[in-house]
Design goal:
- There is one protein chain.
- It is built from 15 helices and 14 strands.
- It has 422 residues and is α/β, with parallel strands linked by helices.
- It has two domains: 169 residues, ATPase, nucleotide binding domain (Nucleotidyltransferase, domain 5), CATH 3.30.420; 183 residues, Nucleotidyltransferase, domain 5.
- The strands form two sheets. It has an eight-stranded mixed beta sheet with strand order 5-4-3-2-1-6-8-7, sandwiched between helices.
- The protein is globular.
- The relative contact order is 0.11.
Length: 422
């Protein structure tokens, strides 16, 4: 079965084509600068890369181009678009209504649209991609895999804010959490590396990139996470402030005369590592400047690691027992100095790094804690796409199975059937 996984951004489309159930990537690519004068598609099959430059006006035209490349005699890997069995979409926000991956129908589209105000940079482009694929591949099942779904197991005491309860009832103002597909994937892999059932594992997973979040996982389920009602809450990020006193917003309106939209831009686009360092939102640039003696760059790095360390301590307290700490994402997987700083002085909760293992740059799953460390520390490259592919395959296979089973004339009553197991 061929499963196409797509992730639509505001001006880009990432895609991977999987052969299932093997989970094998047969092609992948990225289309950038949609709507600009020159759009660029980079398509890769094994080691062969193809670059195409065209004027792509919108996402539907972009997806047309991608489908054309996938079926092209020279660069393609399938003979016809009819060889595609399903499409899996990464969708950021599904609210309280959705706690698992689902077949996309009118009700799901309505829910995605309903939560677009809370994730405008993601849900709206996700919807555009869903609608475009509906036009281009009519009749082909589409599945939505939600970033918020994994965090629907967080208990009420952790997801509610201490504001009048009526506001939660009326507007569903609560912690939702994000990066759920990434946290779910690395938690699954960590359980495998620990050689334990996921139901018996307690983990803290750190997704560190331009956007950052940290999740406490008990028995394989998310019980708390740093991002909240929106992705602004929690850790310091590339351009997001993370946690701050909400009275600052009132103060800025009074002292600076700032409008609410200006403050929203300030906290989401001009704060975080960029705002503190004055250098960049890219931690590599900040590290280079810090080594040159730039005090603000050094301060930004210290603040970044301190906030993560504080969350690790808090989540260890609520978990009681911690089997492993996991680093993932662009920073988590590659920045050995950041991992070292975060784990420094965490011996009191059983975390000790092996410095030689931490310095390894090989891009694969690996243990970086010392042999004496009571808590394992792993680096696990995230793979949200394969998680989406497996969810899509499982849901579509189940749907096809039940469609076929309804055509069978069983002699036993429904409740007694034993040959309909999935």
């Amino acid at each position: 079965m061929n499963i196409l996984v797509i992730n639509c951004g505001s001006s880009s489309i990432k895609y991977q084509l999987f052969r299932m159930p093997e989970g094998k990537v047969v092609a992948k690519g990225l289309l950038e600068k949609i709507g600009e004068q020159v759009s660029v598609l980079t398509h890769q099959v094994r080691e062969k890369r193809t670059e195409i430059k065209e004027n792509i006006s919108d996402h539907e035209r972009g997806l047309q181009l991608i489908l054309g490349v996938l079926t092209n005699k020279k660069s393609g890997v399938i003979s016809d678009i009819s060889d595609l069995s399903a499409v899996g979409h990464r969708v950021v926000h599904g609210g309280e209504e959705i706690s698992k991956s689902v077949i996309i129908d009118d009700k799901i589209i309505k829910t995605i649209s309903q939560y677009s105000d809370l994730a405008p940079l993601h849900n709206r482009p996700n919807l555009v991609g869903i609608e475009a694929m509906g036009h281009l591949l009519p009749g082909v099942p589409q599945v939505a895999v939600f970033d918020t779904a994994f965090h629907q197991t967080i208990p009420q005491r952790a997801y509610l804010y201490a504001i009048p309860y009526e506001l939660y009832q009326k507007y569903r103002i609560r912690k939702y959490g994000f990066h759920g597909t990434s946290h779910r994937y690395v938690a699954w892999r960590a359980a495998r590396l620990l050689n334990k059932p996921k139901e018996e594992t307690n983990l803290i997973t750190c997704h560190l990139g331009n956007g950052c979040s940290i999740t406490a996982i008990e028995g394989g389920k998310s019980i708390d996470t740093s991002m909240g009602f929106t992705p602004l809450e929690g850790l310091i990020m590339g351009t997001r402030s993370g946690d701050l006193d909400p009275a600052i917003i009132v103060y800025l309106t009074e002292k600076q005369g700032m409008e609410i939209n200006e403050i929203n831009t300030l906290l989401n686009r001009r704060s975080g590592l960029l705002g503190v360092s004055g250098v960049s939102n890219d931690i590599r640039d900040i590290q280079r400047e810090a080594k040159k003696g730039n005090k603000r760059a050094k301060l930004a790095l210290e603040m970044f690691c301190y906030r993560i360390k504080k969350y690790i301590g808090a989540y260890t307290a609520i978990l009681g027992r911690l089997d492993a700490l996991v680093f993932t994402g662009g920073i988590g997987e590659n920045a050995m100095d950041i991992r070292r700083e975060i784990c420094d002085n965490l011996g009191n909760i059983g975390i000790e790094l092996d410095e030689s293992k931490n310095k390894e740059t090989v891009q694969k799953e690996r243990l970086i804690s010392s042999k004496d460390s009571k808590t394992k520390v792993f680096v696990i490259p995230t793979n949200e796409e394969v998680m989406i592919a497996y969810d899509t395959y499982e849901i579509v296979s189940r749907k096809l199975f039940y469609s076929a089973s309804r055509k069978i004339n069983y002699s036993k009553p429904e409740a007694e059937r034993t040959d309909c197991k999935t």
